[in-house]
Each structure stands twice: as structure tokens, then as C-alpha cells.
């Protein structure tokens, strides 16, 4: 362990020296003057005065050596389309997109909201934004119109880029009506909406504000748009994530720090070298997609594989066939996908030649031991769990095989990553926990390069949300519980807040509660996350009705439940859909009126709710038990 320990120690004790060395991995148009500005904690500014550009580092920089190497391989099992783009071709497409965006008035510092499915144009759009110095804000294609509207109002984009439709599991999802509704709801009205027409939507919907991309692309076919050289700390993107309030937070990322952190992670954690091929099965709407479908592999000169489709269509062997066909070296996905694949015919994995694959990376949610053992045995290759969050942008815990290949520990994503001063703290006292003692996972100041720099438009919220949970100490809270053993391995024990993790997607239970409350039948609601063998967790809702008598009959209740679920679909999107909505006449609360979500979750998982604070009315817990018993298991 000595090599790892020494490496980590240096990154914490001498961060300036450590990161000055790492900064050599990227191109600086103007060198930075100061490695780290700590003058305004908890804010940290990395590589101050340095000017660079993410698109230049991801694409232009490689043209001299690898213009003819594939940069992007696109496979859609939804449409049957497969495309390859060399670095030279990717460069050309990004320039066309950048010229089109510029012709629509987009300039440095403007926000561009990206509401796109997994298509190559999403990569062009994001990198074109980077080229122009515009700030992209990608909204996951599965989000419904009200969620999209909230993000439009917060980011105030100068342009929205969308498509006619997305597709999942063979089902086409029309985007135009969703964008229409979002624009009708939003206060902010962006001047243009650029549409990529995939010719997928069954109806050719049109709206006066839509500008089609293809004719403009033709017009700017030979365009060359110079990179804007941005100061390292200018924002590169905003990515919204769920928290404890219904209002999503815009996580802001910088430029230079992000590029350096990703480039270093490709060596020390992912061991990806220029010329390798990496397949990250995630979505551009999530942070894993930003960092490891797009920026990191391209910055490091790899070929990245972008996949539209599910892991089981046309059958559960599709991903393994992709590994064979494209000689994939590195693969990255979430444990949920493996749990899905584990239920398929195990022989499918053996049918493909997986000799090119070196390592499988997993992140986004806890990796359970049975899934970890199954995949490690089936593949016979290292499986590297890594723990991080939207806010950090790259892993906080992992076995850093590029530093030292420490033995993995089942159930743990590994040890603290260099740059992160990660400690477990007692929730009340803020003291460092002893080995084996449960605590909140915190990070010391400063956060390393690449982590969030603030909440979009709200510095105060950055401080009050993340840096205020441990009194008198400058500590960032991850809002995760963990336990660390004497060798430094950390096991994640779940969230400290009301955020749940469904199939690797983070959802705020408050958001789902707000959606349900908007239904006229609902007086009160509690949403909790409960364990699910496939998705990790699912949401369960408990509602108190305004007029319970109206829904006394089983049939009326079943109809109302379906109706409430549709309400969540419409407000937030199907990913937030509760597995069940149980009806009760009261909810368990403390005397001070705080909802006892943890007690409800414990009952729903068949656990003892443990010591409870003084409950307003003990009958409420019995109601939850009865509702669960009557409704069966979710
Ligand atoms: P997101 O910001 O959507 O990526 O969600 C981040 C959250 O997912 C973390 O705060 C953890 O609760 C959870 N998470 C991410 N990676 C892991 C992992 N490897 N093991 C356990 N939990 C994880």
C-alpha cells in the first residue's frame, strides 16, 4: 500500500505541487499564474490566469497525430444506425455545429440547453459549446416538461438544442410536444430552438420557433470556428441534480481544472491510453456521460463508444458483442445494468470474444456483493467499483490501479482517491470516526480540480447546502453515510438526506412528493426509497386523501393510484415514477411535525423502525403497516 499512500499523501499535503505536475497533461494557450487560489474559502480556484479550451483539448490537439483514428463510434440498437467519426471528422462536425450556433447568436458565456437523445449530434453540440465558450446544460431526455421548464428558467439559455424524438426499448418518444409544453410553462423564452430531425417522430410536428439543423449544417459545411480561450475558472457547464428541496441545483464546472482532473483520472484510475477504445454505457444527461462518454476519453485520445439502446435489446448479449466488434478495452456502467444482465442467459456473455477488455468500471449506486462476484467470475477481469457524485465530476473512492493495484474488497468502492481529503465524521460532533464507526463522508477544503465550483447563480446555496453541516469546520458533505476500515477502504451505507437512487439515477423524494401534491385528491404525502433487487431502490408513496370516502371502493382506489402515477410521469418523467402509491388516513410525524420517512422506509423493507422520536400519533405507523400488508409488496 505504500505507493498509493505516498501518492495520496503528497496530493493532500502539497496540492499545488501535485496538480502543477498534472496540469502538464493538457494544452494551455496561456500558462496559469497561480496553481490554487484559496483566498475565498470554501471556493477554490484552480490554475488561475491560465487560458485553455475543452474542445481544443478533446479534439483539435489530437489532429496532428490521430486525425484518422476513430474518435467516436456510435451504435443505436433503437434505429439500427451505426456511425464512426475519426478525429478529423469529429472536428469538422463540431465546427459546423459551432458555426450554426454562432449564426443563431450564441456567444461566450451564453447558456445552451441541450435536450437530446443519445445521438452523435449531442456530442457535437456539447463540444461546439465548449469551442465557443458557451455553457452547456444537458437535461436528461427522460425528464418531463415541467422539469425541463424549471431548468430553462434557472439557466436562461440563449438556445435550446433538441431532436424530433428519442427512442427507448423500441418506443419512440416525441420531444416536440415536451419542448412545446416546457416553453409554454417557462418564464424565460429563448430566442431559438434548434432541432435535429432524426425523422423518427411518427407525426411531423412543427412549431414556429423551431429551426432545423440540417439545412444550416449544409450552409456551414466548411466552417472553421476558432476556439475561445477561456480563463481556467470560467464555467464550462451546468448540470442539474436533485437535492433535498424540490428545486434542482445547477452544479457548475470549471474548464481547466476539469480537463486536468479528467486527464489524470484516465491514467491513475481508468488506465486508458491514447488509441484505446472505451465504452461507457450511460447517458449524456448524467455526469458519467459528461465525464466518461465525452470529455475524458477524448482528452486522453481514446475512441469513445456511444450507445443508444438498452442492454437487453435485441438480447442480453448485445454489449458483449459490441466489445468484440469494436475491440473495446475499457467498459463503464452502473450495477443496475449488470443486475439486469445477470437475469439473462449467462451463456450470452461467453459467446463473444472479450479478450480486448481489460477492466470493467462500475459506479452510480452501491455494488452488491452477489452482482460483484458474478461479474468478476464471469469476466475474469478486474471489476473496479468507483464512488462519486455529480458534484465531484470524477471518482472520490476507487482502487487506483494506475497508482497501485490494491486488492479489491467486496462491498467497498475502495480507498480515497488522490486529491480528495476524504474523512468520515460523526454527524453531531464533526469528529473523525474511528475505523469501523459509521459516519458522514466529508471532503476537506479545497476540493480538488474538476469538482463543482458553485451552484449556478447562487453562491450562497453552494455554501449553505454543502459546507455547513459540520459546525465550525470547513468540510464538504457528500450526504452519504459510510464506514472505513483500518486499511482505508470505505463502504457506502446510503444517503443522509432524502435523496434516493433508482437504477443509478438520483431522485429527490421531495420532488416526487411535490408532483403528487399537485393532484387535487391529495392532502399530504410522504415518499420514501425502499430496497429493490433490480433497481437498487424504488420510490414508494404514502398519501392522505382530501376526501377518502370518494375513494372507498377498491376500484376507485386503483384508478386513483394509476392517476397519481401518471401525474408523476407528466411532472417529472417516468424515471421518478413510484412503484406503488399507498393510501393512509395519516402519516407518522414527530410532535414538531417532521415526517418520519426513515421509519416508513424501515417498515416498507420489513425492518424494525428502531428508536423513534416522540410520535404525534402512534396509530399512524400502524396505518403504514396495514397499507403495506393490504397492498402487498411493491
Ligand atoms: P449522482 O450525483 O446522480 O451521480 O449520484 C451520486 C450518489 O450516488 C452518491 O452520492 C451516492 O449516494 C451514490 N453512489 C455513486 N456511486 C456509488 C458507488 N460506487 N457505491 C455506492 N453509492 C454510490
UniProtKB/TrEMBL annotation:
<protein>
    <recommendedName>
        <fullName>Propionate--CoA ligase</fullName>
    </recommendedName>
</protein>
<dbReference type="InterPro" id="IPR042099">
    <property type="entry name" value="ANL_N_sf"/>
</dbReference>
<dbReference type="Pfam" id="PF16177">
    <property type="entry name" value="ACAS_N"/>
</dbReference>
<keyword id="KW-0436">Ligase</keyword>
<keyword id="KW-0812">Transmembrane</keyword>
<feature type="domain" description="AMP-dependent synthetase/ligase">
    <location>
        <begin position="61"/>
        <end position="444"/>
    </location>
</feature>
<keyword id="KW-0472">Membrane</keyword>
<feature type="domain" description="Acetyl-coenzyme A synthetase N-terminal">
    <location>
        <begin position="4"/>
        <end position="58"/>
    </location>
</feature>
<dbReference type="InterPro" id="IPR000873">
    <property type="entry name" value="AMP-dep_synth/lig_dom"/>
</dbReference>
<dbReference type="InterPro" id="IPR012694">
    <property type="entry name" value="Propion_PrpE"/>
</dbReference>
<dbReference type="InterPro" id="IPR025110">
    <property type="entry name" value="AMP-bd_C"/>
</dbReference>
<feature type="domain" description="AMP-binding enzyme C-terminal">
    <location>
        <begin position="511"/>
        <end position="594"/>
    </location>
</feature>
<feature type="transmembrane region" description="Helical">
    <location>
        <begin position="112"/>
        <end position="134"/>
    </location>
</feature>
<keyword id="KW-0067">ATP-binding</keyword>
<comment type="similarity">
    <text>Belongs to the ATP-dependent AMP-binding enzyme family.</text>
</comment>
<dbReference type="Pfam" id="PF13193">
    <property type="entry name" value="AMP-binding_C"/>
</dbReference>
<dbReference type="InterPro" id="IPR045851">
    <property type="entry name" value="AMP-bd_C_sf"/>
</dbReference>
<dbReference type="GO" id="GO:0019629">
    <property type="term" value="P:propionate catabolic process, 2-methylcitrate cycle"/>
</dbReference>
<dbReference type="InterPro" id="IPR032387">
    <property type="entry name" value="ACAS_N"/>
</dbReference>
<dbReference type="Pfam" id="PF00501">
    <property type="entry name" value="AMP-binding"/>
</dbReference>
<keyword id="KW-1133">Transmembrane helix</keyword>
<dbReference type="InterPro" id="IPR020845">
    <property type="entry name" value="AMP-binding_CS"/>
</dbReference>
<dbReference type="GO" id="GO:0005524">
    <property type="term" value="F:ATP binding"/>
</dbReference>
<keyword id="KW-0547">Nucleotide-binding</keyword>
<dbReference type="GO" id="GO:0050218">
    <property type="term" value="F:propionate-CoA ligase activity"/>
</dbReference>
Amino acid at each position: 500500500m505504500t505507493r498509493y499512500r505516498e501518492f495520496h499523501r503528497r496530493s493532500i499535503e502539497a496540492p499545488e505541487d501535485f496538480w502543477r505536475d498534472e496540469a502538464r497533461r493538457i494544452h494551455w494557450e496561456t500558462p496559469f499564474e497561480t496553481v490554487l487560489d484559496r483566498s475565498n474559502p470554501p471556493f477554490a480556484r484552480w490554475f488561475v490566469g491560465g487560458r485553455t479550451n475543452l474542445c481544443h483539448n478533446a479534439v483539435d490537439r489530437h489532429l496532428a497525430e490521430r486525425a484518422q483514428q476513430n474518435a467516436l463510434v456510435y451504435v443505436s440498437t433503437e434505429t439500427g444506425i451505426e456511425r464512426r467519426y475519426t478525429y478529423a471528422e469529429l472536428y469538422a462536425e463540431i465546427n459546423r455545429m459551432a458555426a450554426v450556433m454562432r449564426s443563431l447568436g450564441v456567444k461566450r458565456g451564453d447558456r445552451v440547453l441541450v435536450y437530446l437523445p443519445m445521438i452523435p449530434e449531442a456530442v457535437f453540440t456539447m463540444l461546439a459549446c465548449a469551442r465557443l465558450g458557451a455553457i452547456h446544460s444537458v437535461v436528461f431526455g427522460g425528464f418531463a416538461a415541467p422539469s425541463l421548464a424549471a431548468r430553462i428558467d434557472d439557466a436562461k439559455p440563449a438556445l435550446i438544442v433538441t431532436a424530433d424524438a428519442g427512442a427507448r426499448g423500441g418506443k419512440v418518444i416525441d420531444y416536440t410536444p415536451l419542448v412545446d409544453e416546457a416553453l409554454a410553462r417557462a418564464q424565460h423564452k429563448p430566442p431559438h430552438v434548434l432541432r435535429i430531425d432524426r425523422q423518427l417522430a411518427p407525426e411531423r410536428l412543427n412549431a414556429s420557433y423551431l429551426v432545423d439543423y440540417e439545412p444550416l449544417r449544409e450552409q456551414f459545411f466548411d466552417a472553421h470556428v476558432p476556439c475561445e480561450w477561456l480563463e481556467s475558472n470560467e464555467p464550462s457547464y451546468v448540470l442539474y441534480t436533485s437535492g433535498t428541496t424540490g428545486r434542482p441545483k445547477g452544479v457548475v464546472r470549471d474548464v481547466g481544472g476539469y480537463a486536468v482532473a479528467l486527464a489524470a483520472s484516465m491514467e491513475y484510475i481508468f488506465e486508458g491510453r491514447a488509441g484505446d477504445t472505451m465504452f461507457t454505457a450511460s447517458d449524456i444527461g448524467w455526469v458519467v456521460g459528461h465525464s466518461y462518454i465525452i470529455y475524458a476519453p477524448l482528452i486522453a485520445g481514446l475512441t469513445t463508444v456511444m450507445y443508444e439502446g438498452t442492454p437487453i435489446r435485441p438480447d442480453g448479449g448485445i454489449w458483449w458483442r459490441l466489445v468484440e466488434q469494436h475491440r473495446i478495452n475499457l467498459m463503464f456502467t452502473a450495477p443496475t445494468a449488470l443486475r439486469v444482465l445477470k437475469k439473462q442467459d449467462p451463456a450470452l456473455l461467453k459467446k463473444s470474444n472479450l479478450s480486448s477488455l481489460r477492466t470493467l468500471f462500475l459506479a452510480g449506486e452501491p455494488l452488491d456483493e452477489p452482482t460483484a462476484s458474478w461479474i468478476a467470475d464471469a469476466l475474469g477481469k478486474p471489476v473496479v467499483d468507483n464512488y462519486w457524485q455529480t458534484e465531484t465530476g470524477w471518482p472520490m473512492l476507487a482502487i487506483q490501479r494506475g497508482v497501485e493495484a490494491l486488492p479489491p474488497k467486496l462491498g467497498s468502492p475502495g480507498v480515497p482517491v488522490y486529491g480528495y481529503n476524504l474523512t468520515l465524521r460523526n454527524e453531531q460532533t464533526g469528529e473523525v470516526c474511528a475505523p469501523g464507526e459509521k459516519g458522514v463522508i466529508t471532503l476537506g477544503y479545497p476540493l480538488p480540480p474538476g469538482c463543482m465550483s458553485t451552484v449556478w447563480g447562487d453562491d450562497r446555496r453552494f455554501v449553505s447546502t454543502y459546507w455547513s453541516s459540520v459546525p465550525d469546520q470547513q468540510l464538504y458533505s457528500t450526504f452519504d453515510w459510510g464506514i472505513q476500515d483500518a486499511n482505508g477502504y470505505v463502504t457506502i451505507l446510503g444517503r443522509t438526506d432524502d435523496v434516493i437512487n433508482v437504477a443509478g439515477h438520483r431522485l429527490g423524494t421531495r420532488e416526487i412528493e411535490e408532483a403528487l401534491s399537485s393532484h387535487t385528491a391529495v392532502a399530504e404525502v410522504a415518499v420514501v426509497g425502499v430496497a429493490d433487487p433490480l433497481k437498487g431502490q424504488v420510490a414508494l408513496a404514502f398519501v392522505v386523501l382530501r376526501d377518502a370516502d370518494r375513494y372507498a371502493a377498491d376500484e376507485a382506489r386503483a384508478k386513483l393510484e394509476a392517476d397519481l402515477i401518471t401525474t408523476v410521469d407528466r411532472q417529472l418523467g417516468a424515471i421518478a415514477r413510484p412503484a406503488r402509491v399507498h393510501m393512509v388516513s395519516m402519516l407518522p410525524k414527530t410532535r414538531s411535525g417532521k415526517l418520519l420517512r426513515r421509519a416508513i422506509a424501515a417498515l416498507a423493507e420489513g425492518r424494525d423502525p428502531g428508536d423513534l422520536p416522540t410520535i404525534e400519533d402512534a396509530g399512524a405507523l400502524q396505518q403504514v403497516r396495514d397499507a403495506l400488508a393490504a397492498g402487498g409488496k411493491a
